[in-house]
Design brief:
By secondary structure, this protein is an alpha/beta fold. Helix content is about 25%, strand content about 25%. The chain contains six helices and nine strands, in the order H-H-E-E-H-E-H-E-H-E-E-H-E-E-E. About 40% of the residues are buried. The protein binds S-adenosyl-L-homocysteine. S-adenosyl-L-homocysteine binds next to strand 2, helix 4 and strand 4.
Length: about 220
């Protein structure tokens, strides 16, 4: 696909990435499409040079401004919960390194992503473009969603929120029986000590299913 991938893999990144995929499988990720997407995204390019040797360990890593690229297991869990079909419109809140956005793009989604730190976003936009990912990004407050492009089939928040912003629920697709599924919102909710992964599925104009999917620890979602 990309000239870069034809370069000699001197550091063994391809082999390490394959091992990461197997580690995720062992930890319970069963969605083969998600595992394939993780297999295709060169995570070592989304972290600092000084962190590259850790890029295929299942750990979060610093990306600047006190933020982190999420642990691959967490990315895989959130991505699987979004239950994407190719062509789905997905909004990510918290672009950060761009890694999660790239994984979503590999699943064939049309990806929109909002990041509050403009100076984190600039190098990320350049990287995503270099790698050939067509992802629409903007700097701003993700708790408002992105009304101009709503509704979304899926929304993923990649920072730990204290509550579920109403604007995000409202920007989920409303289902039509037999025609289209309701939108899914995947968001970690809790306090600084940890968050529970929640998935809301829109079932009607004012109704949502809400389920919990285990405990995680994210950098804070800054609201307002
Ligand atoms: N998805 C990213 C994870 C980055 S960490 C990745 O794959 O690398 C979470 C990100 O959410 C941080 O970059 C942080 O600046 C951003 N963030 C926190 N609150 C936000 C808000 N209200 N709106 C937009 N971005 C926000």
């Amino acid at each position: 696909m990309l000239a870069r991938l034809a370069l000699p893999d001197e550091r063994g990144y391809d082999r390490r990435r394959a091992a990461l995929v197997e580690a995720l499988r062992t930890k319970g990720i069963v969605d083969e499409r998600v595992l394939d997407a993780v297999h295709r995204v060169p995570r070592h390019l989304f972290v600092w040079d000084s962190q590259r040797h850790l890029a295929y360990h299942d750990v979060a890593l610093p990306i600047g401004h006190g933020q982190t690229i999420s642990q691959p297991f967490t990315v895989a869990v959130q991505t699987a919960l979004l239950d994407l079909a190719p062509g789905d419109r997905v909004l990510e809140i918290g672009t950060g390194s761009g890694y999660q956005a790239a994984v979503l793009a590999e699943l064939g989604a049309r990806v929109y992503s909002v990041e509050r730190h403009a100076d984190l976003l600039a190098p990320t936009e350049a990287l995503l473009q270099t790698l050939g990912y067509r992802i629409k990004t903007k700097a701003g407050d993700g708790s408002l969603g992105w009304p101009e492009y709503a509704p979304f089939d899926a929304i993923v928040v990649t920072a730990g929120a204290v509550g579920i912003p109403d604007a995000l629920r409202r920007q989920l697709v409303t289902p039509i029986s037999g025609v289209r599924r309701g939108g899914r919102l995947v968001i970690p909710v809790g306090d600084a000590s940890g968050q529970t992964m929640r998935r809301l599925v829109r079932t009607g104009a004012d109704t949502f299913d809400d389920e919990a999917y285990g405990d995680f620890r994210f950098v804070p979602f800054v609201q307002g």
